[in-house]
Amino acid sequence: MRKLAFLASCGLASVALAQTTKPQIEVGYTRSNTFDLRGGGRGTLEGLEVGLSQPMIKLPFVGEARLGVSMLFGGTMAKNSEKGNVFRLTAMYMTPNAGPSGFYAVGGLFYGSASGSSFDSVTGFGMVAGIGFPITKGAASFGVPGVPKLALELKMFQGARAHLRGFSLGLSGRF
User: Fold this and answer.
1) Nearest-angstrom CA–CA distance, 138 and 119
2) Is 166 exposed, middle or buried (0-12, 13-18, 19+ CB in 10 A)?
3) Residues with Cβ < 8 Å from 163, sequence gap 6 or more?
4) Phi, psi for residue 75 in degrees, rounded to 5
5) Which residue has the higher pLDDT, 142 or 128?
6) What does the pLDDT average to over 130-137?
7) What's residue 58's pLDDT?
8) Higher pLDDT, 164 or 10
9) What average pLDDT does the chain have?
């Protein structure tokens, strides 16, 4: 009974210490792995990816858990890319920064759906892992209102389908 009371009080203390944060907007370049096309040959999806994630809980010295969505617009930034889209729902964990302006790690799971005119639509689950580097200095690092906190993030997506695998290099910001 004492252990249960201790665990319950630790849980309540964690919730009491939790901090809410603002949504994060992500914009970047994403490239999928090579996959088979419907009419023969092979292709990739690459182009602009736009995402939005909302931290659900942030605990000091532990990190934050966040849920998000993103959309890859294939064919928007590369001539050799297939026309198509990849939509992802993500559940991610972000570690605290290593030092005052150090890097951080991200990891999590996603459910993705890829569709286009030259390939069969696919869906599936996968994992995402990455690293981020804060690039904002000065007022934004102290949380001054109106000054965005920007970071450069490199992510790798792994899934059962090549359409959903690949890498992303992007800029994320909290306003």
Assistant:
1) 47
2) buried
3) 32, 33, 35, 45, 84, 86, 112, 114, 119, 122
4) 90, 5
5) 128
6) 86
7) 81
8) 164
9) 83
- Residue 40 has a pLDDT of 86
Split at pLDDT 50, 70, 90, the class of 141 is: low
36 vs 5, more confident: 36
Give the CA distances from residue 98 to residues 94, 105, 133, in Å, rounded to whole numbers and listed in that order.
12, 9, 10
Average pLDDT of 104-133? Answer: 93
- What are the CA-CA distances from residue 104 to residues 99, 143, 154 (Å)? 9, 18, 11
Q: Which one-letter amino acid corresponds to residue 133?
A: F
The three-state (H, E, C) secondary structure of the chain, written as one string: CHHHHHHHHHHHHHHHHCCCCCCEEEEEEEEECCEECCCCCEECCEEEEEEEEEEEEEECCCEEEEEEEEEEEECCCCCCCCCEEEEEEEEEEECCCCCCCCCEEEEEEEEEEEEECCCCCEEEEEEEEEEEEECCCHHHHHCCCCCCEEEEEEEEEEECCHHHCEEEEEEEEEC
Question: Identity (one letter) of the amino acid at 134?
Answer: P
Q: How far apart are CA 37 and CA 41, in angstroms?
A: 6
